[in-house]
Amino acid sequence: MMDEIKAGQREWKPGRVFLIGKNYREHVSELGDPPSEGPVVFMKPASSLMPPGAVVRMPSHGAVLHHEVEVVALIGREGRAISESVAESHVFAYALGVDLTLRDVQGRLKKQGLPWEPSKAFDESAPLGPFTTAAGIAAAGIPFHCSVNGQVRQRGHTRDMIYPLGRIIRELSKVWMLRPGDLIFTGTPAGVGPLSPGDTLRVESPVLKAASWRFEGPIEC
Question: How many domains does one find in the chain?
Answer without folding.
Answer: 1
